[in-house]
Amino acid sequence: MSDRTSPSTSTLCPSSVSLEFCSCLLALVIFTCLSFLFPTTHPFDPRTMSGRMGSSLRLAAARSRTGSARLFSTQSSCLRKEIRDAYILSASRTPTAKFNGSFTSVSAPKLGAVAIKSALEKSGVPVSKISDVYMGNVLQGAVGQAPARQAAIFAGLPSSVEAITINKVCASGLKAVAFAAQNIQLGLAEAQIAGGMENMSRVPYYLPRSSGMPAFGHIKAEDGLIKDGLTDVYDQFHMGNCAENTAKKYGITREMQDQYAIQSYERAQAAWKAGAFAEEIAPVTVSGKKGDTIIDTDEGYLDVKLDKVPTLKPAFVRDGTGTVTAANSSTLNDGASALVLGSKAIAQEYGQGSRVLARICGHADAAVDPIDFPIAPAKAVPLALERAGITKDQVAHWEFNEAFAAVIKANEQILGLEGANVNPLGGAISLGHALGSSGSRILVTLLHALKPGEYGVAAICNGGGAASAMVVQRIESV
């Protein structure tokens, strides 16, 4: 169900009009037409029903403006459902490991299991209340059947809990949270787990499996990481080429991108030094020949020489006009993140005292031309804000995924966010970009940074030309 085409699946938008109101309006049109066909007064004459119809329309309009729930009618007026609020009770993430770093022996589902188990323990919600798990995972080659199902079972959830794997490329983790929220909003579930996971270090190389293979001789292998994670399938060029296109279109210079990348590393280093990530991290135990090692810190944020950033050669366009480099792009990484969501009743019972208790105010997806994927957040964010019923000026903290520095600079320019509180703790350039987890990872970080009463926005672009965005508000109680 698309957020763009079905506003009723998103959280309350004050301007939304209920289907009951539309039904009443349609009935009025029909009655008016009948008055011309049958001018004699009869029980359905609009002249005798105008008072009652006006009252019905006013009642329907009043219902459509209610803030806590909207009503929609099925074919029978006595069958009505309520669009409820969805809440986040807990949020955890694993450290983000470097490519071919500490997590090379840990599959994506097992990383996901660590995040799920941590989030569930923090929430205090009994396992018996959880009905579904949604986990984003992009690079599924050699991961095994049903990655989300694996993560749920490895986390200790019973086999009766359903699990669904989501692939919306980089936005997978955030979209997984949106799906879980919709279930709660529609009354289909009381408690859900959602997040994302990725191990880019373990992605295999592909060999063609066709009858046309030679009987002997060399066979060309394809890098699964590049093919399924980093290449625009329509134009057959790297995501970095899309970022170059965006940089040129919006006048984003090499210096601007390098300056932003340096700022990202400096912010991440300062955040780790201040202990800003301590409460969101779920340590991962990695077994090795010399025993177990506990990984509890992001691995890449110190792995940079800031004075060397301006000296790197462009990575994608090498004709002298390129501006996107390895330093001002996100890195390849492994990691996972998870959140526990619940209804109002669940939040009231288990959410008191939660460090990250929040209401999901609105969420949205948006699509653009594939080459323009870096600016897709600028289309999704306004829609999410509209559905949440707030303006950008009410947002205290923005988390945009730093796929490339050009992504942040372009979206800031389009949305008018220059000088806003965007990624104050660093982002994917410095902290890492584990594809399937990144959308939910920025949400985990956002929730831990917000103060009660504050609104925050998480937004992420994804390959293929799209983006997802979510608006949340931290609260102390329900």
From TrEMBL:
**Entry's NCBIfam families?**
AcCoA-C-Actrans
Asked if the Swiss-Prot or TrEMBL record annotates the protein with the keyword Transmembrane helix, the reply is: yes
Q: Where does the sequence pass through the membrane?
A: 12-38
Which GO terms fall under biological process for this protein?
A: fatty acid beta-oxidation
Q: Which PANTHER family match?
A: ACETYL-COA ACETYLTRANSFERASE, MITOCHONDRIAL, ACETYL-COA C-ACYLTRANSFERASE
Name of the protein this chain belongs to: acetyl-CoA C-acetyltransferase
Q: Which CDD domains match?
A: thiolase
Query: Under the cellular component aspect of Gene Ontology, which terms does the record hold?
Result: mitochondrion
The enzyme's first-digit EC class, named in words, is transferase
State where the protein is found: Mitochondrion
Keyword terms, alphabetized = Acyltransferase, Membrane, Metal-binding, Mitochondrion, Potassium, Transferase, Transit peptide, Transmembrane, Transmembrane helix
* Required cofactor(s): K(+)
Q: Name one Pfam family in it.
A: Thiolase_C
What family is reported? Belongs to the thiolase-like superfamily. Thiolase family.
Molecular function terms in GO for this entry? acetyl-CoA C-acetyltransferase activity; metal ion binding
- For this protein, the Enzyme Commission number is 2.3.1.9
Q: Which residues form the Thiolase C-terminal domain?
A: 355-474
Q: Where's the Thiolase N-terminal domain?
A: 87-343
Q: How does it assemble?
A: Homotetramer.
Top-rank taxon, per record = Eukaryota
